[in-house]
Amino acid sequence: MKIVVCIKQVPAKDAPLVITEGGWIRETDIGFEMNEPDSFALEEALRLKEKHTGEVIAVSMGPERVKQTIKEALAKGADRAVHIADDKAHMLDPLGAAKSLAAAIEREKPDLVLTGLQSDDQGFGQTGVLLADRLGLPHATLIMQIAVEGDHLRVKRELEAGWFQWVELPLPAVLTIQSGINKVRYATLKGIMAAKKKEIATISRESLGISHEPTQRIERIYVPTKTKKTEFLTGTPKEAAAKLLEKLRHEARVL
Amino acid sequence: MNILLITEQREGKWNKTSFETLVAAQQIAGETNSRLAAVVIGKGVATLAGEIAATKLNEVLLVEHDLVAAYTPDGYTLALQQVIARTKPDLILLPHTYQVRDFAPKLAASLGKGMIGDCIAYRHENGKLTFVRQMFQGKTVADVVFEGASPWFATFQAGAFRADLVAQGASKAPVTPVLVDFNAAQIRTKPLEIFREAKQAVDLTQAPILVSVGRGIKAPENIPMAEKLAHLLGGELAASRPICDEGWLPMDRQIGSSGQTVSPKLYLALGISGAIQHVVGMKGSRTIVAINKDQNAPIFEVADYGIVGDLFEIVPALTEELEKTKST
Questions:
Q1: Inter-chain touch A237–B314, beta carbons under 8 Å
Q2: Contacts of B274 in chain A (CB under 8 A)
């Protein structure tokens, strides 16, 4: 089974964000990491390969720095990787990003394409579905379980409020993976060493020859204005705790 | 402008967020002098069409077909493409549900158009519509505008508008059946049974007080500390999704868009950053307390009381205070 998994590199969860002109953030001095939802997709791809044999190809788009995340995927067990190089990838709208990824993935002729359900940075949550449309493949989203049954898949899709649904779809297909589907592995030292010999094919996004007129534009990003006035309680932990209980008892009257 | 609202139902029951998005659609229609039509799609859903026709709308479009009786992304896309071709809307609004996430980007892309998803608000200024959505897990918000020719697609997050503000119509809107034509061979996915995993062991919606833990709790061995606090307060223990994903607490303790939606009198968030997926499940709580080491954590935007600090120092202090007052 040939599986492509799309992984995005995003600012680290605790990175202090400084907003810049043009609807983005200052990238210097902050750490980046693999988009957490994509790490579940990668893990699922590796497990499918272990069960059914085949190949896992990690695909990531972005500037040079995303190679670090690609290497992490290779260290965890992906066989090789494709890096779509573009310093301005964050400026793409969801359709533009999906068109670019689709152009690179199409060449691989995969049996299965996996993505996380959304990214922790822009959070469009559209890439997987748009990829399926561009690749002309069927899809299912928010998947919690995958069974390969011959030439088709049987997947468990998460609905809202604790409901699920089984869905069957033919291969090749695109799935977006719900976070929590599996326990993500850590890279082993052996895996890290092995990754050094694995291939990362870099192609510039420009060379893919995508024609795309943006469908939307981020005018600016900013820190949200508070909808509620938060009363901050200060002091030593003991003082703050005492103040809080006092407030909850006598002001909010909830205790 | 022509505005089209696409509502959501399953097995003849509304997804309630349809009415929140109806409120947004009515407001935008009012401010832009637009015509508003609502689509009800399914099989045997004429009653629902009749219900929504009582609200302030110009028209209800009833789309019924055997192949949309059960939802599939292909079936919904094919049917709605035809509705759009027939009615030529400029702006298409949908609630940001799991089902909409599954087909709406595809529907938009199939027309070469884009979708601004998961919006929390809009602004109409100088004849221009701007949509507001969160980025970086709620740490920032973005103003987003459409580029290029209509139709434009936008979805609104659950809780962004209040369903109790739906305007009723002076008279019933006409219900117009829209015939759509496609065949079973065009539908590639096969929807099977819909089921619940297990009976929900705890019904957190009934708990008056919830102590909820997030990533800040760091390790499963720290959870009893929060549990003790919950018990001293007479409440239940809850969690954000990552904690349940890790298996530190069962899934039925999860609050948020994929878990339970609660509105207790007191919600105490311990080490929860406040990603939108969590906040939509608890922002209706009467009093919200957040304890977090990061003073910029988005959870403080919805908190009534906040303590910026180390929860491993503050929670024991709270516990100690509560035990002291209990014993006196």
A1: yes
A2: none
Q: Does A52 touch chain B (CB under 8 A)?
A: no
Strand, coil or helix: B35:
strand
Which residues of A, range 55-84, sit inside 8 Å of B by Cβ? none
Domain assignment of residue B214, given as a range: 204-327
Per the domain annotation, does B193 fall within a domain? no
Asked whether the predicted pLDDT for residue A13 surpasses 90, the reply is: no
Please report where in the chains the tokens 């026709």 appear, as a residue.
B53
Q: Are residues A131 and A247 in the same domain?
A: no
Q: Is the ipTM of this complex over 0.95?
A: no
What's the whole-model pTM score?
Answer: 0.87
Q: Which domain holds residue A115?
A: 2-208
Number of domains in chain A: 2
Residue A217 lies in a domain: no
Q: Is residue B224 domain-shared with residue B131, that is, in the same domain?
A: no
Interval A101-152: pLDDT, tens: 999 999 999 999 999 999 999 999 999 999 999 999 999 999 999 999 999 9
**By C-alpha distance, which of B252, B208, B261 is closest to B234?**
B208
User: What is the distance in angstroms between the Cα of B254 and the nearest Cα belonging to chain A?
Assistant: 10
Asked if the structure places residue A213 within a domain, the reply is no
The answer to whether B109 contacts A133, with C-beta atoms less than 8 Å apart, is: yes
Report how many helices (DSSP H) and strands (DSSP E) chain B contains, helices first: 8, 17
Q: Chain A residue with minimal CA distance to B110? A: A133
Which residues in chain A are closer than 8 Å to B313, comparing Cβ atoms? 237
- Sequence-distant (≥ 6) Cβ neighbours of residue A251 within 8 angstroms: none
- B171: buried, middle or exposed (CB in 10 Å: 19+, 13-18, 0-12)? exposed
